[in-house]
Design a protein that fits this description.
21% strand; seven-stranded mixed sheet; 2 domains; six-stranded mixed sheet; alpha/beta; 18 helices; single chain
Length: 472
């Protein structure tokens, strides 16, 4: 860790995207947010889809800003983003059809149809991945059924961060942490499952080759590099799954540690060296997602602050002018006892009418209606903390790993009300990681790759030496 580097982390989220410049002096580094932009799905032809052309424009804009900041001396760029969503490409590398959002209504019926072909038990035995209706397997099946011609014409499919790296380099590759979210990866062999793809009629010829986090994909191609002031930069696949990068950005050793990547989703889990695929894990819907250096992120998806985001959208649509930070501050003294609802399952996955749906959940748990924003926000935080506690209890029982601390990373680090409740309800010490842990982990993997030393310990050590110049 002695060579000075400038690397750029492109971090794409479903609500927003950002580009972060990391200046590494050989032993420590600073992170600076260069560009941030809004994101969100659009309704097109009765589907929710992503505007990839606008995202590409924002990425190019941010890369030019980063290059200017360091006088074009950028060593590498890496792109991470959310999992499961994908792009179909023809033989010339052109997009086919839309890039569908994981919240699209087509996914749940496709998942149910899939189980008629291959049992849930068999799919879990092969993949070790929890069942979510938006996993890429079910999305592709829905796509093939509705638009068979697009699948037939497709030469390749890539997830979204991999697609943008392809646009930068012309190199098509599936990164391990991102590929693991698809529910088509053999968790033990770390390769695409021939058994599953054959059973579902998905040609392996259309699947990209799998590379590890930290793989140098190559230099930016002749059109992309000079256009953004990075003619000599290479593109490195970080942990392309944003949670994979967020976990890589945790500045604490993983012994005795659980994590909660807290944001729109809450990913509650721990880092293991080997997958745990068991009947109990299947029953509790735990997932074995890929991590840096072949590690496993054993976790469960919890609905997260999406609940409050949707309530805020509804309230502000009524003219109330509220924001999450103000509501969290008003909930600072919320006790762990009080009304709650079951924050699990697919009940709250879709957008719209969230206040009404939460009240239905309260009624099912035997509690009265609550529509006042501060009081309902407190109920959301309490319900999430209870769900975290249940997941962490199951996690310890299934893995046998004792948990002494919980590292909170992501935007939810700033939510003191939720983090305080989490500590009180779980009875486990809560420590704070960076709010932009994903960008830190992305940058740390790139630096380790440039130093030819991508190991779990090395990435964690680099992450611990990265600091943001100003709070994001």
């Amino acid at each position: 860790m002695k060579t000075a580097r400038n690397v750029v982390a492109v971090d794409l989220g479903a609500e927003s995207g950002r580009l972060v410049l990391c200046r590494w002096d050989g032993s420590a580094g600073t992170l600076e947010e260069i560009h941030r932009f809004r994101n969100g799905p659009q309704a097109v032809d009765n589907h929710l889809v992503w505007d990839l052309d606008r995202l590409w424009e924002e990425i190019q804009k941010g890369l030019m800003m980063a290059a200017a900041r360091v006088h074009d001396h950028v060593d590498s760029v890496g792109v991470d983003g959310w999992g499961v969503d994908y792009v179909l490409l023809d033989a010339g590398g052109n997009r086919l059809g839309h890039a569908y959002c994981y919240r699209d209504a087509r996914n749940l019926p496709a998942m149910e149809r899939a189980f008629a072909r291959v049992s849930k038990e068999k799919i879990y035995e092969i993949t070790g991945i929890q069942f979510m209706p938006f996993n890429t397997l079910f999305q592709l099946l829905a796509h093939v059924e509705e638009f068979p011609g697009e699948w037939q014409r497709a030469a390749l499919w890539l997830t979204l961060p991999e697609y943008f790296q392809y646009r930068l380099t012309g190199m098509a590759a599936a990164e391990y942490t991102e590929a693991s979210t698809t529910q088509m990866l053999d968790v033990r062999a770390r390769s695409w499952s021939k058994e599953l793809t054959a059973a579902f009629g998905l040609s392996l010829e259309k699947f990209p080759s799998i590379v590890d986090a930290g793989t140098v994909l190559g230099k930016m191609h002749a059109e992309a590099g000079p256009a953004v002031g990075m003619a000599n930069a290479v593109v490195i696949a970080p942990a392309c799954h944003d949670t994979g990068s967020a976990v890589a950005g945790i500045p604490y050793p993983h012994d005795g540690l659980a994590f909660i990547s807290s944001g729109t989703w809450s990913l509650v889990g721990t880092v293991l060296r080997e997958p745990v695929v068991s009947a109990q894990g299947h029953a509790q819907n735990f997932t074995n997602e890929g991590g840096v250096a072949g590690s496993i992120r054993f976790l469960q998806n919890v609905i997260g602050l999406w609940l409050l985001q949707e309530c805020l959208r509804e309230w502000n649509g009524q003219g109330l002018k509220l924001n999450a930070a103000e509501l969290a501050a008003q909930c600072a003294a919320t006790p762990p006892e009080g009304p709650w609802f079951s924050a699990d399952g697919n009940t709250y996955l879709a957008p719209g009418n969230m206040v009404e749906r939460i009240n239905a959940g309260l009624a099912a748990a035997g509690f009265p209606d609550e529509r006042r924003p501060p009081e309902l926000a407190a109920i959301i935080f309490r319900s999430l903390a209870r769900r975290y506690a249940a997941v962490l209890g199951d996690l310890q029982e299934i893995t046998g790993k004792p948990i002494q601390r919980i590292a909170i990373v992501g935007g939810g680090v700033k939510n003191q009300a939720l983090n305080r409740l989490t500590e009180l309800v779980t009875g486990i010490e809560v420590v704070r990681g960076p709010s932009e842990s994903t960008a830190a982990g992305n940058a740390a993997v790139q630096i380790a790759a440039l130093e030819n030393s991508v190991s779990l310990d090395q990435v964690q050590a680099i992450s611990a030496r990265l600091k943001f110049e100003t709070p994001p």
